[in-house]
Fold this protein.
Amino acid sequence: MTASTIDDRDDLISYLHVAMALEHATIPPYLTAYYSIHSTTNSDAAHIIRVVAVEEMLHLTLVANVLNAIGGRPDLTRPGFVPSYPARLPDGEDDFTVDLRPLSPEAVETFCKIERPGSAPDAGARLLRTPDGARPVLAFSPTAEGMRFYSIGEFYAEIIEGLQKVAAGDPELFSGDPALQVGPEYFYSGGGSVTVVRDLDSACRALRFIAAQGEGLDAGIHDAGGELAHYYRFRQLQLGRYYQVGDDPDAPSGPPLRVSWDEVYQVKVSARLADFPAGSELARAARDFNASYGAFLALLTRAFNGQPGLLQDAVCDMFRLRDGFNQLVRNPLPGSDGLHAGPTFEIPAAAGSDPGASRPAGRTAQAVTR
């Protein structure tokens, strides 16, 4: 049995900060693939990616509710919240990297790896040594130095067990301000609804929902609500057919699904600002996009800190970024052998800074750039 890495409320708060960063880290890759698609083409793929991106916003909201319920404070503007791509995610004994890619077989393969269910072979394998290298590791332990989790599912299992352990010894654990909870009236997703977190049961239910919807716990093709889990939504793009109820995981029997990999802007993989010609209009567009994305994260932070009505605006803003994406992905990037520009998601501190966001007592909130 692996020793617990969560001993108290501060440990839980640190873990939930990491969980928020982890949930968000999938959104830039999904949006990059989504906006690389040529207009009016690949409608099946575009719909699948868009729906999953919206549900990642639901996951962010659920983690924020758990964090607020135990007296933490969500902050999507802190340094390091947005990782430097490529970033590492757990994949059993090995790690794979998540890049900012156009829609492609490689991008879909990565999406399947992100969402793939994965349980450690035994309790002792839940935590693994973090590999050497400068790439950020996204599902790491903020309390066990140099350790990361076997899978996203194991990461959430650790948090759930930690909640149970700390709640057993601290009857005041769930003493956060109820007014900070985001209720279902502020967010709608066809793939689930927001859980208001007031106690251990609702906190565990919220976190299990995240895992079951496609990020680690093997709940089968459909989740408890009958919705297709994220992993299998992306598998449809690989297998060329939609799933129907009762299908074998490797043999969907629904209508055919067509993906045209050529009707996509060939965006440079994980472009950085340093790749853009200095002083160019394209470089300015990349910086403007990053500032707009920082403002989007600041809006989410306000929504999770007492202004829940802003959450609907934030979801809309995520797709109002289309113009900024188009200014980049539709233009070749000089010096890149014909590849197109793309967003870099290098967020300037001033763009998303929330000076009022607090840190867990006695600890600095950990970024994901470990």
Notes: The chain has a mean pLDDT of 86. Strands lie at 87-91, 94-98, 127-129, 147-149. Residues 25 and 82 are 7 Å apart (CA to CA). Residues 43-69 form the longest helix (27 residues).
